[in-house]
Specification:
single chain, 169 residues, mainly alpha
């Protein structure tokens, strides 16, 4: 029965990771380039709507990743302890650090930059030079954060593959 739970947990973990990272890849290489012809204000407004619609999926993926990740780590603690002296433990520590970075970026995007971008793209916000300048700066910051989010997610996948190989030994 335990093997069934481990298998289901692994499947859910991989599906949640694919959902989270896949949506970032889709956004970076599909949605963002397709919206460029609309101009910065309209493209950010549409991107904000897409983000709002995807946010439930993102948060659900995060919860599943955390729950299944904790379950996986508790099941293999003997192979990881002491964490800083075994390659698998060090790799897990790197992976968890990268996951923390991704979560921090997600919180910044969702709670700090998202609302500010929504305010700047609102029809009630005056389209003056100061707001346009703020929008341009904010767009650059969010673009860099999105790329960092993507690259961190890809690094997590690499760390996960390395960790799986180390645990098989």
């Amino acid at each position: 029965m335990e093997k069934i739970f481990e298998g289901l947990s692994t499947i859910l973990h991989v599906l949640a990771a694919v959902t989270w990272i896949g949506s970032i890849i889709y956004s970076q290489f599909g949605v963002t380039p397709a919206l460029k012809p609309l101009g910065p204000t309209k493209s950010h407004a549409v991107n904000g709507l897409a983000t709002k619609n995807f946010s439930g999926l993102t948060w659900a993926s995060l919860v599943v990743l955390l729950a299944t990740g904790i379950y996986a780590v508790t099941g293999m603690w003997d192979k990881l302890d002491p964490v800083l002296t075994k390659p698998a433990g060090i790799t897990l520590l790197i992976k968890l650090t990268l996951v923390s970075i991704m979560i921090i970026i997600l919180f910044f995007q969702f709670y700090q930059y998202g609302p500010r971008m929504k305010q700047l793209t609102s029809p009630t916000t005056p389209k003056n030079q100061e707001n346009t300048l703020q929008m341009t700066r904010l767009a650059r910051v969010t673009q860099k954060l999105s790329k960092t989010h993507l690259y961190t997610g890809l690094a997590i996948i690499v760390a996960a593959v390395i960790l799986a190989q180390l645990l098989e030994q």
